Structure formats: C-alpha cells, structure tokens
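User: quick one, fold this
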Amino acid sequence: MPGDERESLDRLRGLQRDAETGGPLRLLGRIAADIDGHAALFDRNGAPLTPHRGLPDAITGTVRRVRSGGTRSAVEHDGQHRLAAFALSTEPDAPTLALAGPSLDRFTAEPGRTDALRLLALSWRAHHAQERWRRADEAGDQVREAVLHLLIDGGLATAHRAAGALGEPLPDPMRVWVVEVGALERGERDVVAEELLRITGDRAWMIKCPVYSGHLIPAVPPMSHEEERACAAELVATATASTGRISVGISNVLPLRDYAVAYQQAFHALAHARGNAERFATFGRGHDLAAEIAGPGQRWARQVLAGLEDFTPQRPQDPTREELQGTLTSWLMFHQQAARHLKIHRNTLQARLHKIGALLGRDLHRLHDQACVDLALRLRNSAAPEGSGADDLDALLRSDAVRRWAAQLLAPLRESPRLRETVRAWLLADTHLTESAEALGLSTTAVRKRLARAEQLLERSLLHSPSLSYDLHFAFRALNPLG
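Assistant:
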C-alpha cells in the first residue's frame, strides 16, 4: 500500500476511534490538530454549537455563505487567515463545520475528507439524540418530583393527572421503598433505579429523592411477603464497588393518599436496615399517637393551627397560605434540608418559618413546638370524628391510652438505661448533639454512637430526618414530664 494511502487510512481509523470514544468534540480536536488551527460546528442560524475560541470573526461570513448560498462548501482567504466551511449533510438542520488554520490543505485536499465529514455527521447526530433523551429524562424526573410534592402535600387528584402525563399510573394501594445507594459516583443511583425496575417487573413508580442524593423512593404495588423479600434481597445483592452498599426500607401497605406516612415509615425502616445483616427491613407495626387521640385531640389541633389556617396574604409578593403550609410540612419532615426539597434559598426558608412561627405563636426551631405543630397537622388530616376532648395538651397526654402507647414506644430502651438517658438528654437539648454531649459530659462522637445504637433498638430513625424525635418527646412527656 502506498505511503499516502496508508497515512489516509491511519487518519480515518484515528477519526473512527475518536468518534467512538469522545464524540464530536474529540473529532473536532483531531481535525483542528491536523490543520494546525481551529475547528467548530455552527447551527443553521450561524450560532456556534461547540467552543469556537481561536476562530477569526470572518468565519461567520464563510459559514453564512455555505448556509445560504446553495453550496455545501467554501474555502476562502480573508487576507490573514485561511478559512473553510463544510455542510455536514443535506439535512436542513445539519450543522456546518468551520475551519481556520495554516495547514488547511490537509483537510480540503484530503481524499478521505468525505469520510471524515460523514463520521462527524453521524457522531453529531448520535450526540444530539443522546442530548434529547437526556433532556426528556430530566423533564420526566421533574414531573416525578412534582408528583412527590403533591403526594406529600395531599394533592392526590393532581398527582394522578401528572403521573398520567407520563403514561404510568400511580399504584394504589402501595408500599413506599426508600433505597439508599452508597455510591459517590454520579449516575450510580440511575443504575440502581434500572435494576429495581427490572427486579420488580417495571411495577415500581420511581422517584429520585430531591433531598437525599443517594435515595430512591419508589411507590411499589403490594406483593406477597415472600416475593417482596426476594426482590429486596436481589436488589441489595446487586451492590458493586461503584454503587456502594445498598440498603432498603419498606413501609406498610397504605392507600396512596397516605404517601407521606408511608415515606416516613420506609425511612424509619431504612435506619434499621443499615444495621442488620440483610440490609433491608419492613416497618414494624406500631401505634400512632395521633390515632390514640384522634377524636379528643381535634379541638386542640384546630387551636394550634388557627393562625395559619386563617392567614390571607396582604401583598402580592407575600407567600400564599398554601406555600406556607407546604413550607411548614417540609420543615417538620426535613428540617434544614427543606430548602433543598422546596428548591428555595435558605434565607427564603428562614423568612417563611419566621412568618409561620409568628402566625402560630411558636418557635419552629424548638423541638416542643415542632412536635406540637406536627401532631396538630396529623390530627387535622385524620378522618376520625371529633369527640369530647381537652384544650390542654398535657390533659390529652395523661390518658391511659397515651401512657400505654408511650410505654410501648420506649420499651426497647427499658434494658438500656444509658441509652434511654442519652435519648432523653438529646431531646431536652432540642436534638442538638453538641448541647446534649455537654449535658452528659461526653463527646459528640460518643453521643452519636449511642443514638445510632438506639436507632437499632427502636427500629426508627433518630439522627436523620424524618426522625422519631417528635413521638419520643411526647412519650417521655406522657410518662415523666421533660421539664
């Protein structure tokens, strides 16, 4: 084979490798190196599609002549630079290749130029299609995140309509799974999501958690106990070095309208799953304080929430009652992560919390007030009919039913007085580790380790939100006032 032909073949093979491994940008880099100059792609309107630094301003005229002059190529000299432009294909939206360099003849006279242009056109088409799919996936993720907000805020009908736009109806009833992916590498959560869809036979309605970047929170139609365990075990077993450990928490079967409750159950189960050998766990059935006082607590709940329920914004720029209610729900569930959940600035979050606190007469940075408002919201959402009750919270907590509930909740700590005292000190310090450590005379690391141990005994989350702290606060108060 003559030397020129061998050189052309080697160059074409190099272009093919670049197309396969680096896409159009790497191809452009190789072409620019071959002509000792610069290369870029321009769209049908003459705007750059790729970085074009180094190309002279005159190149825009050369590109324009190719786009509008009925010719597929142009080679020019503006007195200082050698310029060229080539249409990648006859398609109207195909980009134009723009070149400038002292060794331009290496491309314009190259017998393999047609092959190079064809490779570049194919590579660009593949890249463009991939970008369109990526944008479609991002749009789908945004719809799913909107559905998550609607489900947490109680907008069930709108959530169904939004899910219908994706052609994937929401399961009802369902279990919520919280899948924790230990990977730090970008994209590994998507890999685990695909595995979960495969394992469940595409029955999981997938949502990527906007708060915890390593979490997936799908709603899954109910399965048999054996099938569910098999699916969870298979998912956990797919963990690799790149995904890191996979842990799974699963809620009880609940109607879709109780998605927020199911999510918190699954989150608590996840805290237990992190510490067990199987790496997955289902939420253990337990009594709910709101259920114990659902009837007699309605009047107290109305009084707690009255200031917010009656709020009407005075100025157009003021947040609406619905926005304040959504902010409150997110804060009580996620605390400082609420800004990320709501996609608002932390200063906006704090301003809204100050407004809500003023309306309710509560300090929403104190555990007692947080717990009271959270309980009032749960009672408001209860379907139980109102019964004769008290206006005073302590009177509600003194009932025999609540005291039995409290004793049952705290029972796992009965044989561990040290852990019980640590949890109590942590609650008295408004769940701040530093203050509770000082009160106990321990390091914050020691307190954190004790709370992690208490999580395993209680099978609930303490250190991460949503946390059991509100119910623990009321349990201690019912049995032995915290004050």
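User: anything notable?
Assistant: The two ends are 93 Å apart (CA to CA).
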